[in-house]
Amino acid sequence: MTEQNRKLPQVNNIRGLGKLGIFNVEALDVKFSNGQEREYYRLHANHDGVTVIAVDQEHLLLIEEYSAGTLNYELGFVRGGIDDQEEILVAAERELAEEIGYQANNYEHLISFYNSTGYQTAQMHVVVATGLTPLEVMPEGDEPEPLTLVRWPLDQLDSLISHPTFRDCRNLAALYAFRDYVRAGKLGACHT
C-alpha cells in the first residue's frame, strides 16, 4: 500500500496528563482504518530546538555539558530551545552567543528532524555557523554553570562519531548531515 492510498488513523481524543518540565504529557485515543484502537502517549513541546554546528577555521566548536540522562558530562554541539516567534537562524545566533560567546558572519539551515516521531512533537533544526568571531561580552544564558568549550579538528569528523561522550542521537544525526555537507564541498562556499 502506498502512502497516497493509506488512510490516516482517526484521533478521537487527546487528553492532557500533566506537565513534565518543558513537555505536556498527552494520551491519544487512535482508531485505525481496520477497526483496531490503541492509546498512544506523546510529549508535546511548545517549542522546537536548534543545534548549531559552529565552524572556526579548521575546527568545530563543541561544548561539554552535564546531562541528567547519563549523569555525566557529554560532548556535543551548541543547542537550545527556540523562543516564541523566534526564527531558526535568530535562535542559532542567540544560542551560539549565550553558550560559547561567539557570533558568526554566516548561518545556514542544514536539516530538520524529529527527535522521536513515536512520542515527541518537537523538531530539531540544525544550523551551520561560519565566519566566527568571539564576542567582547558574553550574554547571560540559562546554563547552571559555564560550559567547557572543546575545539575539534574538522579533519577528524569520523573519530568524533565514535567518541565515548559524543553519544546523543541529535548530535550524531547533525554530524552525519554535516559530514555529507562537507564531503559535497558545500562548506568551502560559506567557510571564512
UniProtKB/TrEMBL annotation:
Its BP terms in the Gene Ontology are: nucleoside phosphate metabolic process; ribose phosphate metabolic process
Q: What cofactors does this protein use? A: Mg(2+)
Q: Does the keyword Hydrolase apply?
A: yes
Q: Which UniProt key words apply to this protein? A: Hydrolase
Domain annotation Nudix hydrolase: ranges: 45-174
Q: Report if keyword Secreted is assigned.
A: no
Molecular-function GO terms, alphabetical: ADP-sugar diphosphatase activity
InterPro entries on file: NUDIX_hydrolase-like_dom_sf (IPR015797), NUDIX_hydrolase_CS (IPR020084), NUDIX_hydrolase_dom (IPR000086)
Annotated Gene Ontology cellular component terms: cytosol
Question: Under which name does UniProt file this protein?
Answer: ADP compounds hydrolase NudE
Which source organism does the UniProt entry give? Answer: Psittacicella hinzii
